[in-house]
Amino acid sequence: MADRLAEVRLAPYTTLRLGGPARAFVEARSPDEIVGIVAGADREGEAVLVLGGGSNLVVSDDGFDGLAVHVSSEGIDVAGDGERVVITVQAGEDWDALVARCVDEGWSGVECLSGIPGRVGSTPIQNVGAYGQEVAQTIVGVRVYDRTTGRTRDLTPAECGFAYRHSAFKDDPGRHVVLAVTYALHRSELSGPIAYKELAVRLGVKLGDRVPLAQARAAVLDLRRGKGMVLDSGDPDTRSAGSFFTNPILTAAQAADLGRRAPGHPRWEMPDGSGAVKVPAAWLIENAGFPKGYEKGAVRISTKHTLALTNPTGTASTRDLLALAREVRDGVHEKFGVLLVNEPVFVGVSL
Ligand SMILES: Cc1cc2nc3c(=O)[nH]c(=O)nc-3n(C[C@H](O)[C@H](O)[C@H](O)COP(=O)(O)OP(=O)(O)OC[C@H]3O[C@@H](n4cnc5c(N)ncnc54)[C@H](O)[C@@H]3O)c2cc1C
User: Fold this and answer.
1) CA–centroid distance, residue 55 to ligand 1 (Å)
2) pLDDT tier at 291 (50, 70, 90 boundaries)?
3) 36 within a domain of the structure (yes/no)
4) Fewer beta carbons within 10 angstroms: which end of the chain, N or C?
């Protein structure tokens, strides 16, 4: 059985490099270990924090009063015939290493998700997405340990309830521990249709065109690096949790209110015909007076990306980060009447 350590600081396990100690910490290296450890903690009534790459977490300075289970299981099974490849990947595998392998093997479907930090088991939690792709497009099954029934189950995509940066896992936090994820990809040297304008421009193609997989990956990594969105110990702007706020989706009435306050603001009509619109959070933040590089003590908005709040020198506290997040959220609300919502998962803190 895996070693159980006491009082382990969580900061080094997060990309923000923030967070106090977990009362106990264990490295779980196989699905059986994950289930055994979590089931044991549940029997003892011990709180559990399932930890992947820590790239979407904001942990309290006081730490976590329970057991942090670091999911480190490995293994990739490849099946399928003809044009379809079905890969079942253990939760602890590194996501970007998986994407790199898919590109090398000629498995198309996740290439635009290059450079996203974290582990495979977390990808269904917020339906990881970028540059016109999201994992909901390729996930065909998620193997979970259900802590309410004490059973292992295979969930269908419908049961996962995927939506924009959201899933059923987020509605019922902590209930399911993801053990493995199955993705269906296409055997092809070409990417899926390019669905994101900025990427199409970078590639010099039209929306809907396909490009060689390696070209798509290189262009995405290039764009992401320019925004500080690829982890790099030499780039302080990448000491973040990625986008701190999601792009708000406004009802038709809320959109009309924003239209009166900010005529001509950028907006994307939602395709469901409800009149709802998605608004870029970065635009709201910048136009509420918070430009790139805006500092508050030891934390600052990334100099490359308005949505990333960073701990550039590694000397900040979670309290500092939340003070900046609140200032930004309140400033946007006062100016535009729109309430920004955090994307990362909060442990022991709230906005
Ligand atoms: C620089 C940077 C860029 C980013 N860019 C993007 C982007 O383009 N698109 C995007 O969608 N996200 C992005 N993110 C956010 C983040 O990388 C993703 O959300 C990622 O999937 C989180 O994975 P993780 O393993 O680090 O999860 P963690 O941060 O460890 O955990 C996140 C949540 O998932 C839960 N969890 C983790 N593993 C499991 C499991 N096996 N079972 C059940 N629950 C689990 C945790 O308890 C927690 O609630 C970015 C982050 C950074 C730092």
Assistant:
1) 5
2) very high
3) yes
4) N
